[in-house]
Amino acid sequence: MGQKHEWSKLSTESKVVAAGRPEKKADGELNPPIALNSTFHVGGPIGYARSGNQTWSALEEAIELLEGGKTLIFASGMAAINAILSLLPPAGVIVAAKNGYQGTTTYLKNLHESGKLTVRFVDLTNAEESMAAIDGAQIVHLESPVNPLLDVVDLPKLITYAKAKGCGVSVDNTFATPLNQNPLAMGADIVIHSVTKFLSGHSDILLGSLSTNDLALYNRLEQSRKYGGAIAGPFETWLALRGLRTFAVRMQRSQENAMILAERLSKDSRISRVRYPGLPSDPNHLLAKSFMKGFGAVVSFEPRGSAAQVDLMCDSAKLITNATSLGGVESIWERRRRWDTESHTVPESLIRFSVGIENVDDIWSDIDQAMLLAKIK
Ligand SMILES: *Cc1c(COP(=O)(O)O)cnc(C)c1O
Question: Residue 2 has what pLDDT?
């Protein structure tokens, strides 16, 4: 019993619901188990739990269907990124964003300073500068939209250029998500997710993933996971799969809210600048529209006020949580420069706002009252 899915005919909304289920059979389980085993009886392909787990396989199958490449999950997004870096030779050359995700940027800076890798930090939104740096590099690590200013990188152009030059390409797709862009279909070698964010969506776990179409590369990354040891916990994996079931509807709702709020903020005289690639007035709008299906759920904006006033504003919200991270059902914001590691090119007053799935008018009222309390004028 149980008809097999024709996956290629299904859309993302259906794939997230149907993927990663156990075999259909009489009294078979609808959901995969939380498989708690450190070891297995002899004779099979797994043998020991650093090499595989039934709950991992279910989540990996689901992400594989979304990104279009064989997938490995890791203990965190950073563990996934570290697995890629572990494949580079000593002092290998990597091109990466100057103002990228601060965890990645800080880690790459440390590796560069200790001589383990040679990192060419560039402004990825400057295609000429990026292409010049790609010449002679082993890998380029792309992110788009780039955190936290939400600049859009010309992914099709840079991926095509890098591949023509024999340079490997990894793309961090955490902000855009597979609902909006598929870097493997554009020719990238590896797609990375911090599954912690939109894919799992409930701010209750950390996990990461890598997906690739290159089987030899997959095998090297799998070895890196097995011996690097940064493996996912089965319970976290199960929660991520549960969260993924609603990923498409959550993302659609969050994006709709983000668009409405970006428009309201951009018309408000108390705000000096709003960045959201979905805004027709955004400098990256046309580029984003040329290859993205939607514009994500993160908005950045600068209230007219001091850092202290903006801190007070973030703290004065009731519905919106003042915290780092993004991609959950709840709206979260923070003043990015409260972090020492944040790039000094990021304006002092900039708020990164991860828009949740709450009622959009309730979110707007909360923003409004927070600005009043902080005397933002
Ligand atoms: C959060 C994040 C990461 C790191 O993921 P963790 O799960 O926190 O280790 C990497 N890239 C981006 C874009 C992120 O937002």
Answer: 63
Which residue's CA is minimally distant from atom 5 of ligand 1? 77
pLDDT of residue 96: 98
In this structure, is residue 3 part of a structural domain?
A: no
| Enclosing domain of residue 110 | 12-244
**Number of domains the chain contains:** 2
Question: 322 with 201, same domain?
Answer: no
Among protein residues, the one with the nearest Cα to ligand 1's atom 1 is: 194
Query: Once rounded to an integer, what is the mean pLDDT over residues 42-51?
Result: 95
Protein residue whose Cα sits closest to atom 8 of ligand 1: 77
CB-based burial label for 2 (10 Å; 0-12, 13-18, 19+)? exposed
Mutational pocket test of ligand 1: of 194, 210, 325, the residue with most ligand atoms within 8 Å of the beta carbon = 194
- Per-residue pLDDT, averaged over 303-327, amounts to 97
pLDDT of residue 351: 97
Assign residue 321 the CATH number of its domain. 3.90.1150.10
The ligand 1 site (C-beta within 6 Å) comprises 76-78, 101, 103-104, 143, 147, 172, 174-175, 194, 196-197, 206, 208
Kindly state whether residue 2 falls inside one of the protein's structural domains: no
Closest-CA residue, ligand 1 atom 7, reads 77
Mean per-residue pLDDT over the chain, rounded: 96
- Of 244, 276, 304, which one is at a domain's C-terminal end? 244
pTM, rounded to two decimals: 0.97
- Would you say residue 211 has pLDDT above 70? yes
Distance between CA atoms of 201 and 327, rounded to whole angstroms? 6
- Give the number of other CB atoms < 10 A from CB of residue 281: 10
Q: For tokens 């902080």, what's the residue?
A: 374
Contact assessment for residue 208 and residue 233, using Cβ atoms and an 8 Å cutoff: no
Is 58's pLDDT higher than 80?
A: yes
Among 85, 99, 101, name the best residue to mutate to test ligand 1's pocket (greatest count of ligand atoms within 8 A of Cβ): 101
Q: What was the pLDDT predicted at 133?
A: 98
pLDDT at 151: 95
Q: Which atom of ligand 1 is nearest to the CA of 175?
A: 13
Backbone dihedral angles phi then psi of residue 168, each to the nearest 5 degrees: -70, 155
CA of 78 to the centre of ligand 1 (A): 6
Do residues 172 and 252 both lie within one domain? Answer: no
**HSE-up of residue 83 (Cα within 13 Å, Cβ side):** 33
